[in-house]
Design brief:
Structural class: alpha+beta
Strand order of the largest sheet: 7-8-9-10-11-1-2-3-4-5-6-12
Low-confidence stretches: 21-30
Order of helices and strands: HHEEEEEEHHEEEEEE
Distance between the termini: 23 Å
Strand content: 35-45%
Length: about 220
């Protein structure tokens, strides 16, 4: 149960990274017929962003159980590296090795994740699967949670999987994401609301590596 909860969280946050990469190339007046051009610009824009830092709130809700949870977190990304921080878990990935620290158990799992593993945690790998795995559609305009006018874009999976649909709200005049909702086929909905986004952060490589000195009491479990 705990592992499945973390996977749902990581998939939701990974879609933040996906959406940021997608949205950096998005301009005012985008329509469905522009999707391929938007994606090409998005991939190029991410490579030129020189490091991203995002603060967010994630809410998850099970429609079947009528229960949910909410928490705040941050994610930093640069190239194929990232560090994701939530109240319960911190995950670092330096492009090869992944460290996952669980606060409750003070345990750090060290892995060399497979491609499938990284689809649950690595935001940028989802960009590739988005290009081949989802169909975008422009659904009009609405008011985002921050009160600003936003474009509504829906991503529909081309193949059967866990995700039923992804709904994006994009601020009309800044082209920045305001919210991202992931609806899973098991009835669990995850909504990410971005509260702050910075580009050009240019983090040093050590940002994406677990620092043993900062967690002196942690038990390191090497699963490689």
């Amino acid at each position: 149960m705990e592992r499945m909860r973390k996977i749902r969280i990581w998939r939701g946050i990974a879609l933040v990274g996906l959406s940021l990469s997608f949205l950096f190339g998005l301009g005012v007046g985008a329509h469905a017929q522009d999707a391929n051009e938007i994606l090409a610009k998005a991939a190029a824009a991410y490579k030129q962003s020189n490091g991203i830092r995002v603060e967010f709130t994630l809410q998850t809700r099970s429609e079947g159980q009528q229960a949910g949870e909410s928490f705040e977190g941050t994610i930093q990304m640069k190239g194929d590296k990232f560090v994701l921080t939530t109240p319960d878990v911190v995950t670092w990935f330096d492009g090869k090795t992944q460290w996952t620290y669980v606060a409750r158990t003070e345990e750090v799992n060290v892995t060399n994740p497979s491609g499938e593993d990284l689809r649950n945690t690595n935001p940028m790998l989802l960009l590739g699967s988005y290009q081949s795995g989802y169909t975008p559609s422009f659904r009009g305009e609405s008011t985002a949670p921050n009160g600003k006018t936003a474009y509504d874009i829906v991503l529909t999976p081309k193949r059967k999987g866990d995700v039923a649909r992804v709904e994006l709200q994009i601020e009309k005049y800044s082209s920045l994401p305001a919210s991202i909702k992931v609806s899973a086929k098991n009835g669990i909905n995850s909504t990410v609301r971005i509260t702050q986004l910075r580009t050009g952060v240019n983090q040093p490589d050590r940002t994406f590596v677990f620092n043993e000195e900062a967690y002196p009491d942690a038990e390191i479990v090497d699963l490689r």
